[in-house]
Amino acid sequence: MNGFTKREEEILKLMRTGSDISVSRLSEILEVSVVTVRADLKSLEDKGYILRSHGRAVPAFHPDMLDKKSSRTQEKERIAKAAAEIVPDGAHIMITNGTTSALVGRYLLGKRDLQIVTNSTLLLPFARVNPNMNLTFIGGEFRPSAEALVGPEAISRLDMFHVSMTISGTDGFTLENGLTTHLVENAEIVRKMCEQADRRIVVVDSSKYGKKGFIKILPIEEIDLIITDTGLSEEAADAIRSKGVEVLRV
User: Fold this and answer.
1) Exposed, middle or buried by CB within 10 Å (0-12, 13-18, 19+), for 55?
2) pLDDT digits (tens, 9 = 90+) for 202-231
3) For residue range 59-84, what is the model confidence (pLDDT) as tens digits?
4) Domain 6-61 maps to which CATH number in 1.10.10.10, 3.40.1570.10, 1.20.1250.20, 3.40.630.30?
5) CATH architecture of the domain formed by 73-249
6) Coil, helix or strand for 72?
7) How many angstroms separate the Cα of 186 from the Cα of each of 96, 216, 242?
């Protein structure tokens, strides 16, 4: 993990069970004082990863989401920043659920007159502090494990919109299988959002390359730009480019 102290990493690992843990119990497990544990919990709360109440700590997210949010954070930040730089003032865009795609919202601060359609509840904190971000949620059923709105209502609502670009994530991507995911509902949302856009941008860290999810989303040839980190080899990037896809490594 990046961006956390070793004790914070241990606390997050303990939190992934989904149960709340008392401060005194954390003090025993970590072999540090209660005061030190409270300082660690305050830091994690400030970062938005936990909630504290009456001497206990609970995860702010589903364990699956907590795991995703706390992995490869530095790479995801670079990727999100690069994607945000592409977005012009006055843009109408769609952003799918996903920890990397949601981070794009952080770097849109300073852009003007943005219209964003999304199914990702992770974008809400960024909209709260950015008066130039007009955020439209598409509705549907809430999935805590993905921090996403999904289902038939969400899909049908997307027919109302046309945007200049869709920024999406993926659980895996390969030359042969394209973009893939583990959930049918995620695949449906990404496909539909890409249908409604002039340009299709995928933001994904290099650890996802070579992974094949259960559900196919789109062939890689149907993507216009993939933004990833330098962990993706130049050879792999060139192989993707040979399919007519632009690749940006940051």
Assistant:
1) exposed
2) 999 999 999 999 999 999 999 999 999 999
3) 777 777 777 776 788 999 999 999 99
4) 1.10.10.10
5) 3-Layer(aba) Sandwich (3.40)
6) coil
7) 9, 10, 27
